[in-house]
Design brief:
TIM Barrel; homodimer; Lyase, Ornithine Decarboxylase, Chain A, domain 1; six-stranded antiparallel β-barrel; 31% helix; alpha/beta; eight-stranded parallel sheet
Chain lengths: 385, 385
Amino acid sequence: MLRPYLDTIMNLEQIPTPAAVLDVSRMLRNIDRMQQRMDALGVKFRPHVKTSKSWPVVQAQLDAGAQGITVSTLKEAEQFFAAGVVDILYAVSMAASKLPQALALRRKGCALKLLTENTESAHAIARFGREHDEVFEVLIEIDTDGHRSGVKPDSELLLQVAAALEAGGARVAGVMTHAGASYDLDTPEALRAMAEQERRECVRAARRLRAAGYDCPCVSVGSTPTALSAQSLEEVTEVRAGVYAFFDLVMSNTGVCALSDIALSVLTTVIGHQAEKGWTIVDAGWMAMSRDRGTQGKKIDYGYGQVCALDGTPVHDYIMISANQEHGIVSHRGQAGHDAATRFPVGTLLRILPNHACATAAQFPEYHALSAGGDLMAWPRFYGW
Amino acid sequence: MLRPYLDTIMNLEQIPTPAAVLDVSRMLRNIDRMQQRMDALGVKFRPHVKTSKSWPVVQAQLDAGAQGITVSTLKEAEQFFAAGVVDILYAVSMAASKLPQALALRRKGCALKLLTENTESAHAIARFGREHDEVFEVLIEIDTDGHRSGVKPDSELLLQVAAALEAGGARVAGVMTHAGASYDLDTPEALRAMAEQERRECVRAARRLRAAGYDCPCVSVGSTPTALSAQSLEEVTEVRAGVYAFFDLVMSNTGVCALSDIALSVLTTVIGHQAEKGWTIVDAGWMAMSRDRGTQGKKIDYGYGQVCALDGTPVHDYIMISANQEHGIVSHRGQAGHDAATRFPVGTLLRILPNHACATAAQFPEYHALSAGGDLMAWPRFYGW
């Protein structure tokens, strides 16, 4: 994954800013931590690759013991299948218009699993499969926390969706849930309770399906906070999580990681000051950080990101308070310090920890991956649909 | 700019979702409106291409009469210089580390103008120019509204920056300001006053520089709201604006455009419902819309966007109330309607107007440009730095 220009770029000082810097040691530590936890709890782990969209990262997850991947777009499925991953779960309720793309992947040998949560989509999948002599494996999305989509585990709809699938010739491959509401919690007790709710409600759905005669082999749960908080995963067969590989300030607010675990940062150059306001202007704005304000209204509001020195050490209480497209305004979070120009002179390089790694990473065509030994590698990432 | 697959994609129903749809008629109307206004006010117009980052859009702006372009990154300068644009203003305070890239552009014949607002950067530009026998043309950024960077027109710093440039061998090519605070205004009176403040303060800076012996030929002002509100542009030589070509909900809130002027929308497919909550789930989340919540706390809060039917007609009071990475939740903005599943059945195509066109467009590798005649073209756009 080395790119030619890295023959000339040898250290962070030489990277054009803004840039996405990935601390590989932290990333590998985060990946190992999650995999060891899943191994100890006796479940398969299927990382969500929507966070990185980058093969070296996914390779590290698979090397650590992950079995298969989760994707949020069929483009991710296509890219990672081309890279050699066969077992792929597309974890967004299937739109009928995307079935030809899914069929093409399966025809090439991809063990692509689909998701649904309504009878219209279930019928469409089954019908399209019949027409093309393909038995689609479909998981049913379960709503265990009310935050988004899915059917309730005790609903009639659950059995109706299963019936629509199997009567039509598709296969109920399992149930899947994502307790995204966990992102808003910030105590170990609340996170453990949410993890248990996610497990219990998803298992309840699987039991109902089995009682009704469906195999339902897979019980898939997960979000980074619940995966790192679950005390038991009894009757769960696999766990999914994505942002754990990089972590971010939202995750730090939940308590499942420290600032020193955050592997992704945005490298930026100081380009000016408004001295009397205590502002330092940097060349990373929202185009680099993304517009994600996920820490707004949470335990600690980091604005658009936590300021760190070039070596990655957080500069206490300095955050990006505001962002325009290619300008960030860095300031002390409390009373304005009036030493901005002496503290961060023009030309200073800073690293900004992001609120939400998935959103910030998406703004960049590549990561500048910094190894423990200090080597820099360019890891490409893709975008779009 | 036609892409091969458009041989098979003939209408909006066939585009894979989510997708960025650009209504070319609206765009051309917006471009003409601005150019005619600038012509009437007797100033040059230099569009900011950070909104589109796409050659067919810039071509239309130049065809309408624009003279030169404004860029927010040197990558934009490189891309559009390669496409044939020579007169380019890089409107972000120059970082010394980017000077080799700027020099390379000038050496190839690009009339690239730089920007600075502090003596450190001014010295660095002049020194680098001397070392490489290049006279950089540099505009001084003026702060006329306190919203971001720039020197005050009546400050000592203004003359110090000019002195640092010319004593070092660079040329003070002019003054430049951007009244970004105009985005927060929403009455014609307030916008006219802001436009006059932007003009007056920038002209004041130019006069001071000329009185001190500098040529200062260029007086460059602009933002979409002030450009569309200014009553006089006396002593201004050029105006810049970017988002006017597409418009968006933030601009609609300022009052400078109507919903029916917004040229960019995100095409999305309904993939499910939470019927009892009145929610419709679509396959455009924040990865498609961006995380921009620019209408939050403004005259009308559109959530993550205004819902429209496939033909572009707004569906009154239906907005995207919440967004996950690849899921959007569409709902009535007031009391939840319970007719979501019948109103927007699974498979329905909707178009969502964005809060901020610059941010939403940036999420997509291409526009699906829909001509007045109903033809679809794929217009590529670039990203990154």
